[in-house]
């Protein structure tokens, strides 16, 4: 009785439990030997299926199992199986089952002994391959690299850094960028005086130092004066508004000069018979040289010429066509200005009334 | 070997320049996805006739209409005209803009069915493509599971220079009710590399994933142990992982399956899979998968037999250079695909016998470049 209870208790595998329960339900009289034989038969069938032996997987009734058990009495072959659990597969219940089953098997004599090795080795494998498991189950195909294509593992590091430059497929572009980088470093280390490396910490300082040095090298500036000319250019004496006005005026002047030159010259575009004039002598070019301000500055409004109120408004009314028109409100208020919204001098105002 | 019901596509009168504008005509519902891929990539309109004309359920099935809807979603400017009875349709392809899309796949086929259409198109979009698909992540009717696609299809593209493809399984869902969700994202490339893969190498590693949804997690373990029993004797470096999703993320129907992948010393991959659709006993499923894998490895070559068409497609779309690859036995899908490629892209393959049932296929690429990709 006790033995059979123990037998029933230790069976943890769910399928075998089901079969054992079923067979227990069938044989109401609870003949110990029949039960145990039935359960052992079920276990054997399970084992055969698991280890892939080529047998037809027909169900075996408990009676047949008992018969077979009785006939194969002296079969003591022990089959050693290496049951390495996979990473996360072996649960604690499974481990307990296997070790307990070996006990159960050992008790009866007329049964094929199946010895399961302990799952401690399986646990070691679990910890070792944890990283591998994560890499394998990862979504990115590039992270499966440890498994899939190991030769591209070196490329993956470079690929991540190059992610922004997806257009640089060609070898040429790659080598050009390398050359640019080398040149930049050479400029920083060799061309600049060593003192600048310590003083020019910010990127803008480095930029100015390099541009200044290049100007000196190209003989546009006296040696030692390169960055000072740049600084002078950035620290203007005028306010921003006046600077923008200067830029606008210069652009207009250039445009007129260009038109005149084009009209006067024999060929299209700026040029004489002898060739193109040097743009540095005739005035500022459209493209920004070093230290030349072009383009829109912050706060620079698009100015529309001809919209400017010329002359005599004195802050009130509209002066157009030689006539100063005052509205009733203005007159009523005396010299008070019309209040309403921000006022921008020079900007076209649409006023109703 | 006569393939029942196959008609060679009309080629018109030779390869004149007007042939590029002629509509390609195909017949029958078979090989539909590969023909759609060729249509979109080559930019030529296709017309498919005689789709199940004698069947009780005449014409296009629901999952095929869902597939055409997916095509419409990921392309821009394409027109699909389906006849009244559904036995024929015309597709005028548009461009591939890329971007983010979501699609609910029909439950008649697994998500792998739809992904097999997306994977060759994704690298040629204007912007990187990200697609979220809902449906059945398991396998239905010998479709690929999402595990296969992730561990086999995407690494196959590495040799063409397409790296950083990603397939994330957010939820699993088995047939028949599905409930799975995956996210597929792909980078874009301008050109494909030319491959010269002639050495299959020796199998050194075996990996596998066993999944189970809405059943006891022990089922996955049992499949693993059954497969191990067969495979351990061949390769010592065998790791089979169990991937069990629980609760919400395990879909709506019970099911389980296992995917096995073998990797050789030269990084060629062979795979096989089996699921609860074939058998209700996990041990049988595991054993079947292991035996299918052994059979697959026996057929040899450098490419898994279910991915032959993909490799051939990318060889044909490569730079104008001769690409070579070693194959095992060619499947009928592959053979028909080569015929369709000749009709649509004009690419011919040279097949030479490489001994021991292996074939060396080489071709001259057409120099396909991703014109959709922006020049920044």
Question: Notable features of this structure?
Answer:
heterodimer, A: 353 residues, mainly alpha, 15 helices, 50% helix, B: 376 residues, alpha/beta, UDP-n-acetylglucosamine1-carboxyvinyl-transferase, Chain, 4-stranded mixed beta sheet, 27% helix, RNA-3'-phosphate cyclase (chain B), ribosome biogenesis (chain B)
Topology of this structure?
The complex is a heterodimer of chains A (about 350) and B (about 375).
Chain A lengths: L1 H9 L3 H13 L5 H19 L11 H10 L6 E4 L10 H16 L5 E4 L3 H9 L1 H8 L15 H9 L9 H21 L2 H6 L3 H15 L8 H9 L5 H25 L14 H4 L35 E3 L2 E3 L2 H5 L21
Helix pairs in contact in A: 2-3, 3-4, 11-12
Chain B lengths: L23 E4 L4 H11 L3 E4 L12 H13 L4 E4 L6 E4 L6 E6 L6 H11 L7 E7 L10 H11 L9 E6 L8 E7 L9 E2 L5 E11 L4 H14 L6 E7 L10 E10 L4 E7 L6 H18 L8 H9 L5 E6 L4 H13 L4 E5 L5 E6 L12
Parallel strand pairs in B: 1-2, 5-6, 9-14, 10-11
Antiparallel strand pairs in B: 2-4, 3-4, 6-8, 7-8, 10-12, 12-13, 14-16, 15-16
Would you write up a description of this structure?
The complex is a heterodimer of chains A (353) and B (376). In chain A, helix 2 packs antiparallel against helix 3, helix 3 crosses helix 4 and helix 11 (203-217) crosses helix 12 (226-234). In chain A, strand 3 (318-320) and strand 4 (323-325) form a beta hairpin. Chain A has a domain at 169-238. By secondary structure, chain A is mostly helical. Chain A is elongated. Chain A contains 15 helices and four strands. In chain A, the strands form two sheets. In chain A, strands 1-2 form a two-stranded parallel sheet. Chain B has 376 residues and is α/β, with parallel strands linked by helices. Helices cover 27% and strands 26% of the residues of chain B. The longest helix of chain B is centred in the last third of the chain and has 18 residues, at 282-299. The model of chain B is unreliable at 1-17 (pLDDT under 50). Chains A and B meet through helix 7 and helix 8 of A and helix 4, strand 7, strand 10, helix 5 and strand 11 of B. Chain B: Belongs to the RNA 3'-terminal cyclase family. Type 2 subfamily.
């Amino acid at each position: 009785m006790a033995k059979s209870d123990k037998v029933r208790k230790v069976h943890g595998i769910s399928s075998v439990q089901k079969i054992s329960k079923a067979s227990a339900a069938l044989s109401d009289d609870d003949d110990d030997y029949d039960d145990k034989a039935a359960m052992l038969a079920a276990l054997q069938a399970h084992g055969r299926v698991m280890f892939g032996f080529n047998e037809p997987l027909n169900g075996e009734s408990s009676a047949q199992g008992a018969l077979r058990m009785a006939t194969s009495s002296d079969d003591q072959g022990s089959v050693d199986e290496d049951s390495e659990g996979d990473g996360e597969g072996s649960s604690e219940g499974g481990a307990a089952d296997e070790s307990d089953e070996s006990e159960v098997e050992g008790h009866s004599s007329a049964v094929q002994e199946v010895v399961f090795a302990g799952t401690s080795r399986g646990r070691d494998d679990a910890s070792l391959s944890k990283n591998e498991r994560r890499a394998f189950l990862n979504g990115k195909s590039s992270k499966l690299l440890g498994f899939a294509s190991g030769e591209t593992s070196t490329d993956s590091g470079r690929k991540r850094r190059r992610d922004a430059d997806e257009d640089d497929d060609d070898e040429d572009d790659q080598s050009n960028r390398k050359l640019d980088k080398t040149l930049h470093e050479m400029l920083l280390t060799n061309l600049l005086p060593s003192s600048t490396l310590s003083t020019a910490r910010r990127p803008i300082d480095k930029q100015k130092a390099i541009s200044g040095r290049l100007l000196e090298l190209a003989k546009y500036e006296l040696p030692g004066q390169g960055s000072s000319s740049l600084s002078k250019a950035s620290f203007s004496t005028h306010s921003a508004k006046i600077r923008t006005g200067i830029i606008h005026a210069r652009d207009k002047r250039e445009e007129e000069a260009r038109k005149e030159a084009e009209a006067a010259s024999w060929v299209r575009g700026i040029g004489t018979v002898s060739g193109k004039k040097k743009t540095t002598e005739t005035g500022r070019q459209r493209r920004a040289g070093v230290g030349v301000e072009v383009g829109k500055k912050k706060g620079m409004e698009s100015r529309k010429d001809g919209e400017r109120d010329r002359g005599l408004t004195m802050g009130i009314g509209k002066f157009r066509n030689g006539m100063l028109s005052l509205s009733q409100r203005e007159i009523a208020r005396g010299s008070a200005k019309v209040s309403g919204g921000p006022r921008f001098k020079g900007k076209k105002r649409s006023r109703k009334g | 070997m006569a393939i029942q019901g196959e008609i060679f596509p009309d080629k018109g009168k030779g390869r004149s320049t007007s042939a590029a504008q002629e509509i390609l005509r195909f017949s029958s519902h078979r090989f539909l996805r590969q023909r759609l891929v060729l249509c979109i990539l080559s930019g030529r309109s296709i017309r498919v006739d005689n789709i199940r004309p004698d069947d009780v359920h005449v014409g296009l099935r629901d999952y095929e209409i869902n597939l055409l809807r997916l095509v419409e979603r990921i392309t821009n400017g394409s027109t699909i005209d389906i006849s009244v009875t559904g036995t024929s349709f015309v597709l005028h392809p548009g461009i591939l803009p890329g971007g983010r899309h979501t699609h609910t796949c029909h439950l008649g086929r697994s998500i792998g069915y739809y992904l097999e259409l997306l994977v060759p198109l994704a690298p040629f979009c204007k912007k990187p493509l990200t697609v979220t698909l809902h449906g059945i992540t398991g396998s239905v009717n010998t479709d690929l599971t999402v595990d296969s696609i992730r561990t086999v299809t995407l690494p196959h593209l590495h040799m063409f220079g397409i790296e950083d493809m990603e397939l994330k399984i957010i939820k699993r869902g088995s047939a028949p009710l599905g409930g799975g969700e995956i996210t597929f994202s792909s980078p874009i490339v301008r050109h494909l590399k030319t491959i010269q893969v002639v050495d299959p190498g020796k199998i050194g590693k075996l990996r596998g994933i066993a999944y189970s949804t809405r059943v006891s997690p022990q089922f996955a373990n049992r499949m693993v142990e059954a497969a191990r029993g067969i495979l351990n004797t061949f390769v010592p470096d065998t790791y089979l992982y169990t991937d069990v999703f629980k609760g919400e993320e395990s879909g709506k129907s019970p099911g389980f399956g296992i995917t096995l992948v073998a990797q050789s010393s030269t990084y060629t991959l062979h795979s096989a899979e089996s699921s609860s659709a074939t058998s209700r006993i996990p041990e049988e499923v595991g054993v079947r998968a292991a035996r299918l894998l052994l059979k697959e490895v026996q057929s040899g070559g450098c490419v898994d037999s279910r991915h032959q068409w993909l490799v051939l497609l990318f060889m044909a779309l490569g730079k104008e250079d001769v690409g070579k690859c070693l194959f095992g036995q060619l499947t009928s899908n592959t053979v028909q695909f080569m015929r369709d490629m000749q009709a649509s892209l004009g690419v011919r393959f040279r097949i030479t016998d490489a001994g021991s049932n292996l074939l060396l296929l080489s071709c001259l690429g057409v120099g396909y470049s991703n014109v959709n990709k922006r020049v920044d």
